[in-house]
């Protein structure tokens, strides 16, 4: 079993006391420059690292934050994590990343595990299955600093950061209407997720603006956001098998967009000749397809940065924070003719 080098190992090797080694590494004035040089050089040679648990007992901090996302492979989350790390590491914090794979049970286990590791705070984007947030409320009420981003709950009072989902959905749906499509379906994630509710609202607002009736048969929810291919396939089949088929689909997520394209290709449905698509996507993969797909891009990196700054502000505040912010960042529509 690997055992990292300790202060005692340095002391024994150099014939010094552990307290002298400890003071030398802390660069205190009572230790001579010659001894400090000797200790620092030997510590570097054996790759000595201070014990984070011992430090945390002193400082009451572990200098680590937990991150809970649905899936690291998702382009939005991978970009958001880059933003999180850019701030955290710069401020001396370690980042522990966990994935829920859209499972409520996995989210609970991950959160409990992170809390048991005495992290200083949590950054969370809810799983598609999560409608009960009791496991998060419990920690929040006991003083665990937490910030929600992208997929946020209504019932926990803390900092939250989201993209302007409603505006993005409105612009994407309007783009399809202006391009001549009138029978526009909507493929989205679970019906209780904040992003699904907001994007559905934007889709509906665009139809209302152009006096197009909302057809409930055209709205399809995938409870796990397309994590399971059969979920997307079932929803797309239901749409293309309708007597009054849609001529376009506004898709509310990266994984759903790629899943929908795979199903349409398998069914030999031509995009955009038979069905046009527009979606929410941070993936550059869409640029490689032979058929054009307009997409709403979220400022994922900036959202990760901002959420981390908000969390560190909570962690490092000397007084309890009671004034919380709901920050909404604008999206950008990339149109492809």
UniProtKB/TrEMBL annotation:
Pfam families to which the protein is assigned, alphabetical: LacI, Peripla_BP_3
Database matches in PROSITE patterns: HTH_LACI_2
Annotated source species: Pedobacter hiemivivus
Keywords on record: DNA-binding, Transcription, Transcription regulation
Name of the protein described by the UniProt record: LacI family transcriptional regulator
Sample GO molecular function, one term: DNA-binding transcription factor activity
Residue ranges of domain HTH lacI-type in the record: 5-59
Source domain of life: Bacteria
């Amino acid at each position: 079993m690997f055992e990292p080098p300790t202060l005692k190992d340095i002391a024994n090797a150099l014939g010094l006391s552990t307290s002298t080694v400890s003071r030398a590494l802390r660069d205190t004035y009572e230790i001579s420059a010659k001894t400090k040089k000797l200790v620092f050089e030997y510590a570097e040679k054996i790759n000595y690292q201070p014990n984070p648990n011992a430090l945390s007992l002193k400082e009451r901090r572990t200098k680590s934050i937990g991150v809970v996302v649905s899936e690291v492979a998702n382009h939005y989350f991978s970009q958001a994590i880059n933003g999180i790390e850019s701030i955290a590491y710069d401020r001396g914090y370690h980042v522990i990343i966990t994935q829920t794979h859209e499972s409520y049970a996995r989210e609970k286990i991950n959160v409990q595990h992170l809390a048991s590791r005495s992290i200083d705070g949590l950054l969370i984007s809810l799983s598609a299955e999560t409608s009960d947030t009791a496991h998060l409320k419990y920690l929040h009420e006991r003083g665990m600093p937490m910030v929600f981003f992208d997929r946020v709950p209504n019932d926990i009072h803390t900092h939250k950061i989201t993209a302007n989902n409603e505006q993005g959905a409105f612009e994407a749906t309007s783009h399809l209407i202006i391009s001549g499509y009138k029978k526009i379906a909507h493929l989205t994630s679970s019906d209780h997720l904040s992003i699904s509710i907001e994007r559905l609202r934007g889709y509906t607002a665009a139809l209302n603006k152009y006096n197009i009736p909302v057809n409930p048969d055209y709205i399809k929810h995938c409870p796990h956001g397309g994590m399971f291919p059969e979920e997307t396939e079932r929803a797309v089949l239901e749409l293309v098998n309708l007597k009054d088929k849609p001529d376009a689909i506004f898709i509310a997520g990266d994984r759903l967009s790629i899943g929908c394209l795979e199903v349409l290709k398998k069914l030999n449905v031509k995009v955009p000749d038979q069905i046009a698509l527009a979606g929410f996507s941070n993936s550059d993969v869409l640029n490689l397809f032979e058929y054009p797909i307009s997409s709403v891009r979220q400022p994922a990196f900036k959202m990760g940065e901002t959420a981390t700054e908000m969390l560190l502000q909570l962690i490092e505040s000397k007084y309890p924070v009671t004034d919380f912010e709901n920050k909404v960042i604008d999206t950008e529509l990339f149109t492809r003719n």
